[in-house]
Amino acid sequence: MHIGVLLVNNDVTGQPNTPIKCGGAPQKIAYLAEDYFRKSGVRERSSVIFASAAGGMFGIKKYADSLNAVIARKGMDARYQHDLVEVRPNTREAVFTRLDDQSQVVLHYDMLHVTPPMNAPDVIQQSILCHEAGWVDVDKHTLRHNCYNNIFSLGDCSSLPTSKTGAAIRKQAPVLVENMMALMHGKAMPATYDGYTSCPLVTGY
């Protein structure tokens, strides 16, 4: 899980080990919190930790390199392959399992921002529409279901192998409508989703 921890003495921010809506959201709050602490004059007394179940800051090296430079410039502590498994509010502790060796790491926090694991609603997960991972099983180009020809899906609950963002849905929606209308009129589906997505990352105010 990606998690952001704020140490004001400790601030922790986190991100889960699942697909999430807007993959950059956990990072954004970590960057903005760090910036706010700096503007408020408490940054020197704060530790800002970004803990993520992922193996790095971003899945594409070009962007990961840029974001790693932001982390370094801001003096933040990025910890990867840290999956949040427990929060102990009474003692202000966040418990992580390291995915590389299954050891446990306990971090004290003064402020904790957690992005929870996400999945499709039960009504979808428990239906025959899903594949084994729990998402509506659709063709990644036509957006039509792989088993049921009169069903289409897009967005957060679909099995499309792209980021679950509003930018992605903006490009998926016209494809779905065009193909569905063609199918309703007995024509071949003309539209193809090319996998476009976008993930703007705000790194400060």
Describe the structure.
With 205 residues, the chain is α/β, with parallel strands linked by helices. The chain is 25% helix and 20% strand. It has 2 domains: 3-114, FAD/NAD(P)-binding domain, CATH 3.50.50; 122-184, no CATH class. It has helices spanning 25-39, 61-74, 122-125, 166-184; strands at residues 3-7, 11-15, 47-52, 77-79, 82-88, 93-98, 104-108, 111-114. The strands form 3 sheets. Strands 1, 2 and 8 form a 3-stranded mixed beta sheet that branches. Strands 5-6-7 form a 3-stranded antiparallel beta sheet, with no helix packed on it. A two-stranded parallel sheet has the order 3-4. A hairpin with a 5-residue loop joins strand 6 (93-98) and strand 7. It starts with a strand and ends in a 21-residue tail after the last helix. 33% of the residues are buried.
Q: What is the CATH first-level class name of the largest domain? A: Alpha Beta
Strand content: 15-25%
Count of domain modules: 2
Low-confidence stretches: 1-10
- Count of DSSP helices? 4
Number of strands: 8
List the helices and strands in order.
EEHEHEEEEEHH
In angstroms, what separates the terminal alpha carbons?
A: 25 Å
Secondary-structure blueprint of this entry?
Layout: E1 3-7, E2 11-15, H1 25-39, E3 47-52, H2 61-74, E4 77-79, E5 82-88, E6 93-98, E7 104-108, E8 111-114, H3 122-125, H4 166-184
Parallel strand pairs: 2-8, 3-4
Antiparallel strand pairs: 1-2, 1-8, 5-6, 6-7
